[in-house]
Amino acid sequence: MKNEKSGNTLHYPTVPTDWDNLAGFSTSCPCGRVHSIDTRQFSVRAGAIQDVHQCVAGRFRGKSVGMVADERTYSIAGKSVSELLLSVGYDVIRCIVPDGAGGRPHATFDAVLDVERRLHTAEFIVAVGSGTVNDLGKLASYRLGIPYAIVATAPSMNGYTSAVAAIMKDGLKKTIPCHQPAAVVADLDVLCKAPLPLIQAGLGDLESKPVSTADFMLSAMLRGTYFCPVPGQVVAEAEALAAACALELSEGKPEAVKVLTEALLLSGCSMKLAGSSSPASGGEHLISHYWDMTAAAENRIEGSHGAQVGVATIATASLYEFLRKLSPDALHVDNLVAARPSAANESAAVAARHGTFGDLAAAEMQKKRISDQAYRQELQYVISYWDVIWETLSTLKPAAAIRNVLQQAGCPVTVDALGLTDAHLRRGFLYAREIRGRFTVLDFAADLGVLETAASRVFAESGCLSGR
Ligand SMILES: [Zn+2]
Ligand SMILES: [Zn+2]
Hints:
- The chain has 468 residues and is α/β, with parallel strands linked by helices.
- The chain is built from 23 helices and ten strands.
- 52% of the residues lie in helices and 11% in strands.
- The strands form three sheets. Strands 3-10-7-6-4-5 form a six-stranded parallel beta sheet. Strands 1-2 form a two-stranded antiparallel sheet.
């Protein structure tokens, strides 16, 4: 970022977006890192399940394959995968993940340990499913030290190709670093038959990218964290293509499902290229994770990740618009520094607010806590470089455009359509930033002293309220 501001021209590499060239791609970059894709085979086509034994054979020489699925994904694709593998001489150990609350499995750390126990003799894992099954198979295989392949059953989220797993552990939703799949099988015949709410969820997850990437940039500008434009570029065009297909997605049209699937797979790869989930997970993901983390205590069942992310994205995109309209001259640095709670008071308030995960949340907040002097410098920087900051946040997409795309596809755009209330939206907006040490637009608004005052305006303007 700093080099760009000083006018030096950096020549960033171009990452291929076709599957054959992306598989195993690696390049060094002026950002100082090597961007690489560890997945060696992408099979993205109608009938791709027929490729599964080649994917397995090309990636390991053993005989014992563990297959993770749930009851539904086993009947959708797992049975065929199992029969194919058996027919070419593999031993298949089936691990059907049991359903929990709401009649579906959950990605908890205990569930990961259960998969590990049941598949400890496997030499390779094939996960057949979507979000939860993918997370369980990915993290269990990583912890067992064996490769895995994913057979996707719904275009419902972007985690198939990422090198992280989203797991509930000790009451906190954690993004745990692990590995990319050795191979990805995305059979468009299977994906097109996915229930519409899962297809809509995929679009909801994807629509957060222009906003989460802005958070990734903002953190680099204000907190000096790592940023590189290359990961975001991989998915930008695909995201726009998928958004343009919103109406066709609502009708489950195969060509639109293909475009969405490809965009989601590229979005997962962008996280691997960045070395973290930052390009695809900003304040909107924290709000969704916060709703998940508070579900059990409220006797609620965790909602759809992508649906929640879509609504939260409308709110955070709208928050960016609220902030952009502020006048930097109206920011009073001395007053803001004086009004800032001490580290001890902040920790105590955060710990008290979050019940069973209060201490963990307080520890997360400490990770992004800066000294009063650094806070003062940050505010002065914001005032001096106000226009530069907004010019740099070039990936931002208007909240109204995001809402329009989601509406066209029939995705939820209000909290009540998620089974949540206006109070959930308010609490998520104000407190979700406390569950993770990542700096996002929610922290930016808090640092400018306007998060609370922004809430009502943002909710009214974004149209996320239930209307009741
Ligand atoms: Zn780079
Ligand atoms: Zn997501």
